[in-house]
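Dear all,

This email documents one entry for the complex benchmark we are building for the journal club exercise. For each entry we list the sequence lines for every component of the assembly. Then comes the predicted three-dimensional structure of the complex as a token string, followed by one or two observations. Please use this as the template for your own entries, and keep the labels exactly as they appear.
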Amino acid sequence: MADPSIDAGRTTRSRRRPPASVLLAGGLLATIVLAAIAANWIAPFPSDEMHVRDRLMAPSLTYWAGTDEYGRDVLSRTLQGSRLSLFLGFVATAIALLLGVPLGLTAGYCRGLVDELTMRGLEIVMSFPSLLFVLLILGVFPPSPLLTAAAIGIVFVPHVARVVRSVTLDLMSGEFILAAQARGEHAAYILFRELLPNLWPFIVVEGSLRVAFAILLGAVLSFLGFGVQPPAADWGLMLTTARDFASQAPWMALAPGLAMSLTVIAVSLVGDGLREHLDPAVRSRR
Amino acid sequence: MTPLLELRELSVAYAGEAGWLTAVRGLSLSLEAGRALGLVGESGSGKSTVAGAVLDLLGPAGAIEGEIVFEGRDLGKLDHRGRRKLLGRRIGAVFQDPFTALNPAMSIGNHIAEPLIRHLGLPRRAALDRACELLADMHIANPREIAAAYPHQLSGGMRQRALIAAAIACEPSLLILDEPTTALDVTVEARILEILEELRRRKAVSLLFISHNLGVVRAVCDDLAVLYAGELLESGPAAAVLRRPRHPYTKGLIASMPPLMAGTRRGRLPSIPGQLPDLSAPRRGCIFEPRCPFAEPRCSEEAQALHPLGERRQARCWKEAQVPDWPLPAAAAAPPAATPERQALFRIVDLRKSFQLSRGLSALRVDLSGKGPVVSYRPHRLVAVDDVSLSLMTGEVLGLVGESGSGKSTLGRLILRLLSRSSGRIEFDGADVAVLRGAPLRAFRGSAQIVFQNADSSLNPRLSIGTALERPLVLFEKLPAAGRRRRVLELLDMVRLPAAYRTRYPHQLSGGEKQRVAIARALASRPRFIVCDEPVSALDVSVQAAIVNLMADLRDAFGLAYLFISHDLAVVAQLSDRIAVMYRGSLCETGSATEVLAPPYHPYTRMLLNAVPRIDAEQAPEPARSPAGATVPGNTSAGCAFRDRCPRKIGAICETTRPPLRPITATHAIACHLDLDRMR
């Protein structure tokens, strides 16, 4: 009966630290967010200040990440641009989760007609290429960063809902759901107290993927000229312009590309760590 | 005579997160050509690891020491390629789960032909012909059809036969069977055992038979080896070991098996307390010492060696000569052996439940044969419970027995209104359950609860044990937080779990402990009735006995009524006052436990009873010969549900008229057209 490892697992739970990779990724993510907030103060130059003599300069002590075709400091622009990219990533994901999780939960829980209607409706949204759908929304309404985020979020709703629904369907076959029904629990209790805690790991992983995708989609939009308009700074937009100078000034793509990769990696790692941390089984096995 | 397979000091360890876990420790065994060796033990005993080591299936995670000598060669010295050549050619293997062991995209014939083409180089056509012959050897009536079929079209028993056919296709000298019948119904199991027996006789293949079921091992094996926590505790000829076990653990295992006879209200089953030792920490003394009721200080001091006991027997216990029989437990706190009150708690009248198998768009049929296309809506229905009438008295235990697909669980869920009935009536305390609303419904939910088979999935993995137990208290008792905590401790105590378990999570508990928590949760609302849906089927024998005892104690302490659903007649007989036998949704026989287990029998009850593998030696299992078709759930036409499999079918009347439940005595009723004399 007295298994010492069980007790150890329990008592050290509050004191246990997540693994180093997650701490590192969390630190990186925090730094990126802080840098985005403080961009105006820490950037060495104003993001739209042109240095006409120093056009297409390679990275140097003055311009750490080089300059672009107008002589603007790439590092400053990357910092400035992080605000918009991060805003897009997180707000779009929040919208996708806020709509997608309840839809998927309800569809998986109710099954039958509700499921059919919800999922077929979402499939209509999915049947459009996501880029086309976002462009459609952006074409109709006056552009704003919030609208872009909302459009991307809506495009992601079916993806989130499908993941949540399939996990819910699987969980519904668990006998603890029947046990709850045998106690006469309300649907709301079963949905949010029995099912939702089991869904967190999937929501976290899906969410971290969606942040990355939203940032990338935002970049594509800017790239196509539908997102942020020049001369504003944005990672996608910077990559677009960098393409034209790829042979002369490859560093123009380096800083925004690196920033984007680091953000995506950090978000995924933090998501992965959170998933493990939320699972009592993994938590105590350590 | 050199043995066909010999294990010499075999040890297998897995690299775990907490260091090395020794799954098998210093195991020496030998299997002679043409013989069958049974490897017995509970989960965690390392028996499947032994099979994995011989078959080279452990992968890089398992570190193997010692020698595995097969046909004079040490397998450990061969490379993977060399071993692959032996697998399927000289060594065949069949595993537990016939539902996942076949590739769903490959026809049965191809499964069997594959090793023939690969190892023997037969052309495909010849291989397929040979596959059909092999299927015919497995007593499959229509081998050509089955060879062309895909796995999903076959029942579990048929799939297992196909897998055996594939395993012996190349005429291997050794066949390793890892719990081959555990996932199957008893009647199907009996059939598979017969086939194995015949295989041994005709092809002289040796068997390494792994099972937790002593009765099955008795039916198949010549020799027996009992494994516990990776160590061999006892071995010898199967009949001798089972008749006169020498090691305390073997004694405990045999004692824990419920006998196939009606239990009494005071009776309790012997069980083995405690659980497997930690496999990562080596023990100094006897590995079974912590759970052994006969342990002495000397047991924990010196490592135990295997003592030869003559007649090819050995046991790992220094005091085996002095060990008495396994102790019998007493009922907790002398129960008021109250006979159930004659007051109906439940009355079920003509209850019927049919499921729509296809609906929505998939039920639409388009008929293009007429002038224009005709669209019709034809949902496919399955009758799971077919006009069942039953009643249950307060404080009574009603056992419900039947094979999988007989509608037992559906009936249990209908009674609790977890499913809605199609027609008929269910009364609880005189009130129709289907129309309950509001407060009366809540009261009903509180007084009628359920315990499930699968303790893993019946507890929410994200909720601590305390939280799970508190929830019914919030719902039904409206207790303040302090009162709830007190009551949770009370509940844990009732199911004999320590108070510290309140803060644990399900994954930190063993299967038996989880089942105790599930029982405590059902008890929290102070119910008068609990549906027990196969509550011990997934547990090891020793744990199963403890849970059955616990349920008997709770029944006596709180005057609980149970609907005890199980496919295992022996377990049902232990606990039940009355037994109902169900086949394809309708009742075949009802009566007191003693009446159902003695003649006159319904032919189906007789078939079930005969199929149960026993360990008592002299009773050579009477072959449960029957046209053992698959149990297809649901009866479709008017006749007797059992007519297609009935060995005593009379004739036309069985096809056309459904037999009513005919009273034999005041309490005993059988639904069969046979004369009473012929049912004896």
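Observations: Chain B is about 30% helix and 25% strand. The interface with chain A takes residues 17-18, 274-275, 278, 360, 413, 416, 418, 441-442, 445-446, 448-450, 452-454, 457-463, 471-472, 475-476, 498, 500, 503-505, 507-508, 518, 521-522, 525 of chain B (CB under 8 Å).
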